[in-house]
Amino acid sequence: MHLSRDVVLLITHSGDFFTIDRVTEAISKRGAQPFRLDTDLFPLEVQLTAQFDNSKSYHTIEYGSHSISTEQVQAVWLRRIWEPKLGAELAPQFQQACVRESRATLNGFWDSLKDARWVDHIDRVDAAQDKLRQLRVASEVGLTIPKTLVTNKAEAAREFFQQVKGKMVSKLLTHLSHSMQPTASSSFLYTSAVKEEDLQDAESLRYCPMVFQEQIPKHLELRVVYVNGKVFVGALDAGIYAASKADWRKPGVDVGAWLHHELPDEVVRRLQAFMGKFGLLFGSLDFILTPSGEYVFLENNPAGEWGMIERDLDLPIASAIADALLEKRDEG
């Protein structure tokens, strides 16, 4: 079936649920046509055709019984891009080549959608992933950030440990997992507390630099979801899961119930300025509220998770994303 109405392309993967379903429903209620593209099913179950000549270029996507063309896509929600599942029947020596070609073909399709409204465009999301740039920009707009050291020098890490009086955590600059619900075999590495004995044999840093930060005292941990100027907040009482020491996202940690929370206007204004610097309409940000009442920015996840706070707190995040996607059409 060829869809004729305004199409909103939803870029995700076959294991995605709840958030994608809520946004799909919200788009349909607004009279537009959602088209879900599970990137991990390309090329085995999704067909893409691109034609080029001197007058124009033309792309079509076929998935199941539905097909769309580039011209129909009014807006794009970049939720997730996963690598293809190619199956064991493909010889190992061809696997990586096929993955590269599939990725390059999809990149061409994304380029053909340059005139659509993106939340958010892949180039902006990629640029916004830079955690060190995030810290710099957050500081510039007046958000409080933790003292931070990035180094591949063991002695520098030991000196920083002393500077922060032994209250130090470590993390990576990049995420190694697609999901906030990793399996036992996942390579996701969480923020972890650092002890002095951990630094006695830290020479392996020369192989891979790491991020070290002062450990901020926690009253609440906040997941702040930003959508086109609007802010939605879920809070966790840090005292409930104190045994986890550093990262509430670790599997098996009982974090207790999500709580409603409202950011001060001044923090909201600075957050809006931060997102504006990156040109982003969406972000899933982590903050700490300290026992003394200070809001400390940790990081922004440009395509981060939010389903848990919509589900538990009945926050209209999916509705806000649908509004952001269709804003240009509504203005027209």
UniProtKB/TrEMBL annotation:
Gene3D superfamilies: ATP-grasp fold, B domain. InterPro entries: ATP_grasp_MvdC, MvdD-like_ATPgrasp. Transmembrane segments: none annotated. GO terms for cellular component: cytoplasm. Residues 8-125 form the MvdD-like pre-ATP grasp domain. GO terms for molecular function: ribosomal S6-glutamic acid ligase activity. GO terms for biological process: SOS response. This is MvdC family ATP-grasp ribosomal peptide maturase.
